[in-house]
């Protein structure tokens, strides 16, 4: 399987898991996604697909901002992701936990 095919297959597997609301094995092992460039390439494919499906990008998030958490997970920098309108919960809003596999709350920095 070519490198581009592995990235596309990983992106599709994540999209399928999201649609089915079901966990999957880590894509790093299954599809050989072994570095940040590959991971962000997978994210970019899914971002483009989401936008083509009509989802609206409303912001971006930064995760792993704590040095302690970075050390715990074996990384040396924060990561970032996309925030779509269907993920947004306004101040005072309620989170529909039926949409989540493992509901939990974590503080993150977001830019809108």
Quick one: overall form? globular
Structural class: alpha+beta
Overall average pLDDT: 90
Order of helices and strands: HHHEHEE
Portion in beta strands: 5-15%
Strand arrangement across the biggest beta sheet: 2-1-3
Distance between the termini: 38 Å
The largest sheet is: 3 strands, antiparallel
Question: Any idea what the radius of gyration is?
Answer: 15 Å
Number of helices: 4
* Total strand segments: 3
What fraction, in percent, of the residue positions are helical?
40-55%
Quick overview of this protein structure:
The chain is of the alpha+beta class. 42% of the residues lie in helices and 14% in strands. Strands 2-1-3 form a three-stranded antiparallel β-sheet.
Task: Annotate the secondary structure layout.
Elements: H1 3-20, H2 27-31, H3 36-52, E1 57-63, H4 67-73, E2 79-84, E3 109-111
Antiparallel strand pairs: 1-2, 1-3
Helix pairs in contact: 1-3
Description:
The chain is α+β, with helices and mostly antiparallel strands. The protein is built from four helices and three strands, in the order αααβαββ. It has helices at 3-20, 27-31, 36-52, 67-73; strands spanning 57-63, 79-84, 109-111. The longest helix has 18 residues, at 3-20. The protein starts with a helix and ends with a strand.
Features:
112 residues, alpha+beta, three-stranded antiparallel beta sheet, 4 helices, 3 strands, globular
């Amino acid at each position: 399987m070519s490198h581009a095919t592995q990235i596309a297959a990983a992106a599709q597997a994540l999209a399928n898991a999201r649609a089915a609301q079901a966990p999957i094995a880590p894509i790093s092992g299954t599809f050989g996604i072994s570095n940040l460039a590959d991971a962000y390439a997978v994210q970019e494919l899914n971002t483009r697909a989401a936008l083509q499906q009509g989802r609206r990008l409303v912001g971006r998030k930064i995760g792993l901002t704590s040095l302690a958490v970075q050390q715990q997970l074996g990384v040396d920098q924060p990561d970032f992701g996309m925030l779509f309108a269907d993920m947004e919960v306004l101040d005072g809003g309620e989170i529909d936990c039926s949409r989540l596999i493992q509901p939990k709350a974590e503080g993150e920095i977001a830019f809108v």
